[in-house]
């Protein structure tokens, strides 16, 4: 019953807000202003995140650069021929003797 109550309350609140938006231009302006500010904050966070990510990548790239001449990659090793495995031996526990 609680879920049904909160569902109905949400619908009623949504309808009340929609009615205010239609009838009251000040309410519409307030919502549009809040939405614009929220977008600006989101863009600021995104820009800051991307800048910091770029700084970290540059720092990692500088740390990974070798200070000596680059080495040639090692030649690939020849594959070993497949050998047959011996079957595993099953170990059994010693049974206690009854006295």
From TrEMBL:
Give residue spans, biased composition: Low complexity. Answer: 71-86
Residue segments, region Disordered:
57-99
The protein's name is Unannotated protein
User: Organism classification, top ranks?
Assistant: unclassified sequences, metagenomes, ecological metagenomes
